[in-house]
Amino acid sequence: MASIRLAEVSKRYGTVEAVRDLNLVCADGDLLALLGPSGCGKTSTLKMVAGIEDVTAGEIYFGDRPVTALDPAQRNVAMVFEDYALYPHLTVAQNVAFPLEIRGRPPHEITRAVDDVLRLLGLETLRDVGVRQLSGGAQQRVAIGRALVREPAVILFDEPLSHLDGNHKVQLRAEIKRLQGETGVTGVLVTHDQTEAMAMADRVAVMHLGVLQQLAPPAVLYDHPANLFVAQFIGEPPMNLFAATLATNGSTLTATGEGWRVPLTAEVSARLRAVARGADVVIGARPEHLRLHALNGSTGAGLAGRVFFREPRGDVDVVLVKVDRTVLAGDGVGGRDVVTVETPAGVDWKEDDAVEVTLGEGPLHVFDARSGLSALPGA
Amino acid sequence: MSRLEVRALGKSFGATRALDDVTLAVGPGEILGVTGPSGAGKSTLCRVVVGIDTPSAGEVLMDGTSVTAVPPERRRVAFMFESYALYPQLTVFENVAFPLRAPGARRLTRAELTARVRDVLALVELEGLDGRRPGELSGGQKQRVALCRALVQEPRAWLLDEPISHLDAKLRHVLRGALRRRLVRTDAAIMWASPDAAEALAVADRVAVLVAGRLQQVAPPAEIYRRPATVDVARLVGDPPMNLLEGALVENAGAVGFRHAAFGVPLPPALRMRLGANARRERVVLGLRPAEIRVAAGTDGTRGEVWVWEPLGKHGILSVRMGSDVVKVKVAKDGSWTPGAAVALDMSVTEPVLFDAVTGSVL
Lengths: 379, 363
Known about the structure:
The structure holds two protein chains of two kinds. Chain A has two domains: about 5-225, Rossmann fold, CATH 3.40.50.300; about 235-370, CATH 2.40.50.140. Helices cover about 25% and strands about 35% of the residues of chain A. Chain A contains ten helices and 20 strands. By secondary structure, chain B is of the alpha+beta class. Chain B has nine helices and 20 strands. Chain B has helices at about 40-50, 90-100, 110-125, 140-150, 170-185, 195-205, 220-225, 230-235, 270-275; strands at about 5-15, 15-25, 30-35, 55-60, 65, 75-80, 155-160, 190-195, 205-210, 215-220, 245-250, 255-260, 265, 280-290, 295, 300-310, 315-320, 325-330, 340-345, 355. Chain B has a six-stranded mixed beta sheet with strand order 6-7-8-3-9-10, with helices on both faces. A five-stranded antiparallel beta sheet of chain B has the order 13-12-11-14-20. A five-stranded antiparallel beta sheet of chain B has the order 15-19-16-17-18, with no helix packed on it. In chain B, α2 (about 90-100) runs parallel beside α4. Chain B is elongated and about 75 Å long. Chain B starts with a strand and ends in a 7-residue tail after the last strand. Chains A and B meet through α6, α7, α8, β16 and β18 of A and α5, α6, α7, β16 and β18 of B.
């Protein structure tokens, strides 16, 4: 058992800087997720923690012990891979026993350790089954058992769920979280799937182009994204980002965009005092924090538009509204005039229905348009 | 007006039955979603309909006429390959224009052809990339080129095999809408295959669920959500999917209840009515949607133990251990749940679904 600390860690492959000046801490017994799109540096980081890749600069510590110069075996890390990497000709029990056998542990000790792990994973009834006959989810559980059986200081998960179908993914994601908590082993998870990272990790490190964007517990990432990258990467469907300017309105501020305006609360206004009046900002509103109204003549309170598409999801509907103006900031992917609203199921919104979208009923996020940084940091 | 049908379709690869007695019909301007786990037969179905694979049994019909013996190029079916199958030496523009220049295609003027290609490239936000070659594109861009090559045609049917699976979330959302709007305004029949049931349910008029080559259910999305026909369908639908708990149906003074090894749940009268005179069953599976179960105040409910808490931002998923089962509940985001803590659930939901535990079919 150990905490993990990365101090100013960088990784270069030739001229490509995969990871830049990374500072990270994962507390003893926590599960840390490294999250980001492909090329963000998450896998390079994991490999450096494992000792499979050398660091170009910086230091890695397990507890107080620098491990940067140690090979993987000396670090006592176990890895779980996306493709399970089991021995196909061996049974479940033989696969789990393998790491202990190559270490020459006495047979009675191996049997006991394997039994304990199989019980923990609910694999007792499959102990003598060949792993080839198992489903993907069961194979991954065996791989986790093989990692746990030798009581590693740290367990590293490299996209462990990416080969599984939806429901198996949801099941195993909870199982891994439960196991990691129960055994208390420090874990690092690499994933590109924000739902997975949020569901499983105690803290999530969001990375982009080799640089750490934010390190925070899941709820903080969702409620207080530090910048526009995190704001867009966390949440499904993604946050709406509106181009706006700030203006003073008595003691509070008003955010004004193309065809809409929203008074900001006194609390938000006070916190935004540092941002210059008239500044270009980006107002972020999550789809579930917007409201959709049937439009009978324009009220002028929100954004008028037409239903472009309604996606039923069972208990909620995701409604895309094509608004009359170019209101969205960001890279323009998906258009600058399509606003996403998540609304409870029940209203039968039809394509091309005239509607109005209002902001301001739920929390809003404010970002500096130039730097992309949150103007409401902290929490 | 085109109507696509498959009748009693079968396809075997050696001893493996990839498709088994599949009968489906898709009308003009209708999108039939096809979903199921990997290996369900989705891609095989597409390949048989387009004519790349020949069926081992059954028929493919267009407008009531069998095309089972007609070669692919004469079926007028536009197919988007899951593997893209782009021509590496051709530009994006030439790849997309390719089917318009095929022998047998309607002759277009150069201006018409250019307009058609540009139109579909704009739809999928690939403007400005028409001069690139596939090798210079990202995976998501290649997928969009393959999609354009299908969209540019005027076929009797479109078969789209995972058309947008590799795109970023924002673009995927918008394209679901943009594609649906465009396709349903044509006279062609459309099949849209995706392993992501949520996508199939989002874009389709009706959804066909395949498991291990067999059709489990064909129904409009709302019905698949509300009344999945089998436990296999229930496992695929919803995020997270329905809880499936095995137990028995017991009757007591006219009321019917579900008895699990660890707890009991009364069932709503409407369900009682549907079961008929003798409601007792030895082995059933009770399906409860995570969003409909409530955490009960105090200990007034079915007791269990917090197993896992997954905070997802807008809401959380609480897994509660009840006997040998784990029940997932969709709860408000701001809870704080410690594994091992006692919790009570109100499981008397208004719309439970009951399945026969042996056959897996809905009761």
